[in-house]
Design goal:
The chain is built from nine helices and nine strands. It is an alpha/beta fold and 236 residues long. Bound molecules: adenosine-5'-triphosphate (ATP) and magnesium ion. Magnesium ion (MG) binds next to helix 1.
Length: 236
């Protein structure tokens, strides 16, 4: 492949704790993702899919360390990057949709504020422009009468609508890499299919939100080729 990978994970290990109580939960996993590609991380529960994904954004708790590995993104090894650099790429070049949708949205903030905040953090836009962009995004992710939803709070939305808002937030700054960690677990089957279709469109669409992390095999068939890496498996 001629194009350099967007993200290149090399021999990544993740360990929790120190000394004798240390538990190495990921052991030397390697994979890369090129622009426009969808890659699924597949493995049994507890095999380290979520902690590997969180490593890419450096969102693991301080009890976690990386005894081995490099994560190359944008010419930098993320594992060596400082907080300042991470803040500039989180929610901008790399977005993540978490496993538990209910805990992702802030119950005290309106939809306009939640989606608008991430845009304003990375773009120099005024209130009116941000509002237009939020309405645009909400419409794009399939929320009807988006303008009327701006003042709603998360509890006033259905589970499917909430997940659409989360996706709108993740897509807000047209990320190069979109990480989705079981984005449909909490939804019923019909809505799951719609959300997966939406993510597929986001990945194909305008070349943004390119790569997703889908642990379930069903997601794999919907979204692209799976990558199974024996070297990353935990010893059991
Ligand atoms: N904060 C933490 N402290 C200690 N151990 C942790 C922590 N977070 C995760 N682990 C451990 O790391 C291992 C990998 O967890 P992870 O959440 O990545 O699994 P997963 O592959 O995403 O599983 P699932 O399919 O159930 O979501 C597990 O053994 C888990 O107990
Ligand atoms: Mg997980």
């Amino acid at each position: 492949m001629s194009e350099a990978p967007l993200v290149d994970v090399k021999s990544l290990s993740v360990e929790f704790g120190e000394g004798e109580s240390a538990a190495r939960v990921v052991k030397g996993v390697s994979f890369n993702i090129t622009k426009g590609e969808t890659v699924a991380l597949v493995g049994e529960s507890g095999s380290g899919k979520t902690v590997s994904a969180l490593s890419i954004l450096k969102l693991l708790p301080s009890s976690a360390s990386h005894p081995t590995g490099e994560i190359w993104f944008d010419g930098k090894d993320i594992l060596k990057a400082d907080d300042r650099f991470m803040r500039t790429i989180r929610g901008d070049k790399i977005s993540i949709i978490f496993q538990e949708p209910m805990t992702t949205l802030n119950p005290l903030h309106t939809i306009e504020k939640q989606v608008g905040e991430i845009i304003k953090l990375h773009r120099n836009l005024g209130d009116a422009e941000t509002r237009t962009r939020v309405i645009d995004l909400l419409t794009k992710v399939g929320i009807r009468d988006a303008e009327k939803r701006l003042d709603s709070y998360p509890h006033q939305l259905s589970g499917g609508q909430r997940q659409r808002v989360i996706i709108a937030t993740a897509l807000a700054n047209e990320p190069d890499l979109l990480i989705a960690d079981e984005p449909t677990t909490a939804l019923d089957v019909t809505i799951q299919a719609q959300i997966l279709e939406l993510l597929k469109l986001a990945a194909e669409g305008d070349g943004h939100g390119d790569a997703a992390h889908h642990p379930r095999s069903r997601h794999r068939t919907a979204h692209g080729r799976p990558r199974l890496r024996d070297e990353g498996r935990r010893d059991r």
